[in-house]
Design a protein that fits this description.
40% of the residues lie in helices and 24% in strands. It has helices at residues 3-17, 22-29, 33-45, 68-82, 97-106, 119-125, 148-155, 180-191, 230-239, and strands at residues 19-21, 50-52, 55-57, 90-93, 113-116, 131-134, 138-139, 145-146, 159-165, 168-170, 174-177, 193-199, 211-214, 221-225, 243-246. The longest helix is centred in the first third of the chain and has 15 residues, at 3-17. The protein is globular, with a radius of gyration of 17 Å. Residues 3-58 form the HTH deoR-type domain.
Length: 247
């Protein structure tokens, strides 16, 4: 794996979870302590992360801007996602950078009802024509609301589609979440929906989060970007109901 590819994955994780640990990156990327430290130094030098003891966090001031290619991929995935949303529909958006991209693309479109556990998504849609249902719960560092309150609220809803921002994707583990608490809420959102649409940029492939949210076969649609590897393309085509490669 090239340094640029490793750093894209690291940035993706920092944006999603608010921070990363050195030992977790070593295991996830399959590289040495020194390699990860060099990657973090490069990213810190660009102002994209802040190095801390044992890892890295978001820089002071919040979420770093994505590199041009990353921003382009997020926008492309978001365009494909909103094309699946019909006016007046009720949808659920999970937490994450791709879900936030969908919220931004949705902001100027016809009114819908949007259920979310993401403070970022709710903030983007605040003041628009959409009705936002923000689940309660305990705030994670990523800005997600999780825990029993959020799970109970999600479990009592029925939506047309859930747009799941997957933390990781593998054939064995399926679509995974970055924390046990996030997985609990996301499973409830998936169960509440008639259709499961998974948002998974190419950097999510091969990443295994701590808990499975859904199997590959459960996805009605998976939206990824043009960086998707051949093995990922084949696996998603074989298992998901429909694969969309956003360009």
């Amino acid at each position: 794996m090239l340094a640029r590819q490793r750093q894209e994955i690291i940035l993706d994780l920092v944006r999603r979870d608010g921070g990363v640990r050195l030992r977790d990156l070593m295991r996830r990327l399959g590289v040495s302590d020194m390699t990860v430290r060099r990657d973090l130094e490069d990213l810190a030098g660009q102002g994209l992360v802040e190095k801390v003891h044992g890892g890295a966090t978001l820089p002071a001031g919040g979420v770093p801007a994505a590199p041009a290619a990353g921003a382009s991929a997020v926008a492309a995935i978001a365009r494909q996602a909103v094309a699946l949303v019909e006016p007046g529909a009720a949808i659920a958006l999970s937490n994450g950078a791709l879900a936030a991209g969908v919220a931004e693309a949705l902001a100027d479109r016809p009114a819908t009802t949007v259920v979310t556990n993401s403070l970022r998504v709710a903030g983007i849609l605040h003041g628009t024509r959409h009705t936002v249902v923000l689940l309660g719960g305990v705030r994670e560092a990523s800005g997600a609301l999780v825990g029993p309150v959020a799970e109970a609220a999600a479990g009592g809803l029925n939506v047309d589609a859930v747009f799941l921002d997957a933390h990781g994707v593998t054939v064995r583990a399926g679509f995974t979440a970055g924390s046990l608490a996030a997985a609990g809420v996301e499973r409830r959102l998936v169960a509440s929906a008639r259709r499961l649409v998974v948002l998974a940029g190419h950097t999510r492939w091969g990443v295994t989060g701590i808990a499975t949210v859904a199997a590959l076969d459960d996805a009605d649609v998976v939206i990824t970007d043009e960086g998707v590897a051949d093995d990922a393309y084949v696996a998603l085509t074989d298992h998901a109901g429909r694969l969309i490669v956003a360009s």
